[in-house]
Structures are given as C-alpha cells and as structure tokens.
Design a protein that fits this description.
The protein has about 120 residues and is α+β, with helices and mostly antiparallel strands. It has one domain (about 30-115): Cupredoxins -  blue copper proteins (Immunoglobulin-like), CATH 2.60.40.420. The chain contains one helix and nine strands. The protein has one helix at about 1-25; strands at about 30-35, 40-45, 45-50, 50-60, 70, 75, 85-90, 95-100, 110-115. Strands 3-9-8-5-6 form a five-stranded mixed beta sheet, with no helix packed on it. Strands 2-1-4-7 form a four-stranded mixed beta sheet, with no helix packed on it. Strand 1 (about 30-35) and strand 2 (about 40-45) form a beta hairpin. The chain is globular and about 70 Å long.
Length: about 120
C-alpha cells in the first residue's frame, strides 16, 4: 500500500511539474492588424509591452500590390483586397523599422517604427 501511495505521489509531482514547465514555455502571441494602402500602413498597435511572438495580419485595402517587412521577415506581395499574415518572434526590446519593399512605396510614406518594450 505504501508503494502505491508513493507511486501516485511521484506521478502527481511529475504531472504538476510538466504542466508548470509547459505554461512557462508557452508565451502569449499578440495579433496586430495592419491596413496597407496608397501610401500608408495603419497598425492597430505600434508597440507591445514585452518581447515575444507577434502576428501581423495585413490587409491590402489599396489598389496596388504591397508587402510588409519587419525584423528581417517579409510577407509575400499582397494583391489589392487580399490579406497575409507575418509571424515575428521578437527576442529583445527595441525599435524595429518596418516598410513596404515595393520600389518607391517606402519613400512615399509606407514605413515606420514598431516598438518592443
């Protein structure tokens, strides 16, 4: 009987430890909506409170194709009326430049700074 109780306690301790480790590893993902058009980006938020995973959900509301590049990652070219998502893992706080890489678009205003606090 003592062995059974000891085995159950060990299993419960292992299960509790695994659940705690899993919750510590699972960081929250922030989703930010972005509207792109001629010649602007409109972010629902231009900053996040801490490093982690951010999904940029980009909708092209304009009449020309656009994309979004930030932190070395880029969406495919997004045709008018279409959408694309970009998942970026920010590992440290800082200011990250974003822009549309279509020639001439950033020069016309499709750029800015996203801040990770």
């Amino acid at each position: 009987m003592r062995r059974l109780i000891a085995s159950v306690l060990v299993l419960l301790a292992v299960a509790a430890g695994s659940a705690g480790a899993a919750s510590q590893r699972t960081a929250a993902t922030t989703t930010i909506t972005v509207k792109a058009g001629e010649f602007f980006f409109k972010f629902s938020k231009t900053s996040v409170a801490k490093p982690g995973t951010v999904v940029f959900s980009v909708k092209n509301t304009g009449h020309l194709a656009h994309d979004l590049k930030i932190a070395g990652k880029k969406t495919p070219l997004i045709q008018p009326g279409k959408s694309a998502s970009l998942k970026v893992v920010f590992t440290k706080a800082g200011k990250y430049a974003y822009l549309c890489t279509v020639p001439g678009h950033a020069a016309q205003g499709m750029k800015g700074i996203f801040t990770v606090h």
